[in-house]
Design goal:
Helix content is 33%, strand content 13%. It has 260 residues and is α/β, with parallel strands linked by helices. α1 runs parallel beside α8.
């Protein structure tokens, strides 16, 4: 492993083999608050491989003010990045998409149909972390009824991290009724973000509201937490108890939602 684990106090256990595919991480270098170099990304990808992940989909931030990424540039950077890490033992880099913030430009993106989708099928989006935004359901309905976008499925990233929602919030329940998938962060389940996020993550999964798990891996701090999570018995029990659909995002005909 090119000495990758020398600076870590232990190696990860491969408990995420059943998940197989990570659909949410920030390891495309120098495009957001994630990794800053190809070598740094290769280190974290090596850890993910040892933790059991065989396929990785990179999902850089797209945000109005903070990360004004352009889809064409991200695609070009991804092709370069794959070549940069060829010599390292990484999982398969099967695609690049985006994590889109529901912000002032999101509605215009819908009108322009301008997104990078996971496997050309799934739209990954996130909400404001601090304040509830009005109008989310209406815009998602626009996507679901658009002549072009209606064949896409929608995934809400880390619903457990929005502190204005409880694990049984009516807004989240309505999103589930609309057929929106939920993706909980693995590191939420380990307590990385706090006890409230950990508790809500477990509750949402046990409620049957969560279809996907994701690492949301950014930096060294996250990678160390990912290693630690592979020794978390509660997470291991959860993985043995529940079925998640990470691997099936690579299936072009996969769907579990009801279309409007």
């Amino acid at each position: 492993m090119f000495g990758f684990f020398k600076k870590y106090h232990k190696k990860p256990r491969p408990i995420y083999e059943a998940l197989g595919t990570d659909i949410h991480c920030h390891l495309l270098p120098n495009v957001d608050d994630g990794s800053k170099s190809a070598v740094e990304s290769a280190t974290y990808l090596g850890i993910m491989k040892e933790a059991g992940f065989s396929n990785i989909i990179l999902t850089p931030h797209f945000q109005d003010r903070n990360y004004t990424n352009v889809e064409e540039d991200i695609l070009n950077r991804f092709e370069t990045f794959k070549k940069d890490v060829e010599k390292y033992p990484t999982p398969n880099l099967v695609g690049v998409a985006g994590e889109y913030r529901f912000d002032t430009k999101f509605r215009q993106r819908v009108k322009d149909r301008k997104f990078l989708f996971i496997n050309d099928k799934f739209l990954l989006f996130e909400l404001n972390m601090g304040t509830e935004i009005i109008g989310v359901e209406e815009v998602l309905f626009e996507i679901q009824t658009d002549d072009v976008l209606r064949d896409k499925d929608i995934i809400l990233a880390h619903p457990e991290r929005y502190n204005y929602y409880s694990s049984h919030a009516k807004t989240l329940e309505r999103l589930k009724d609309m057929g929106i998938y939920f993706q909980v962060n693995i590191l939420s389940l380990s307590g990385f973000y706090g006890e409230s996020e950990r508790k809500k993550g477990f509750e949402m999964i046990n409620n049957g509201w969560v279809e996907f798990l994701g690492t949301d891996l950014h930096t060294n701090l996250y990678s160390q937490a990912l290693i630690d999570s592979t020794y978390d018995k509660d997470i291991e029990k959860l993985l043995n108890k529940h079925t998640f659909y990470n691997n099936r995002v690579l299936d072009p005909v996969f769907t579990i939602s009801n279309k409007i």
